[in-house]
Design a protein that fits this description.
The chain is mostly helical and about 60 residues long. The protein is built from 2 helices and no strands.
């Protein structure tokens, strides 16, 4: 697992914990919700990298 994957996993875990604490999700549906949170965080990071790469190339 590379650094980005570890960081995305950590961020997704922290978000899921906050949702549980706020009672927006329950431990019972964690298995359904976590992949969605992880996928959203990963997609956001990858899009950010792509955009940052394009901006760096334009300079």
């Amino acid at each position: 697992m590379d650094k980005i994957e570890r960081e995305v996993l950590q961020a997704a875990k922290e978000i899921a914990v906050k949702f549980i604490e706020a009672q927006r999700i329950s431990p019972a549906n964690f298995e359904q919700i976590f992949p969605l949170v992880y996928g959203t965080v990963l997609k956001t990071v990858l899009e950010g990298q792509r955009q940052h790469g394009q901006e760096a190339g334009q300079e």
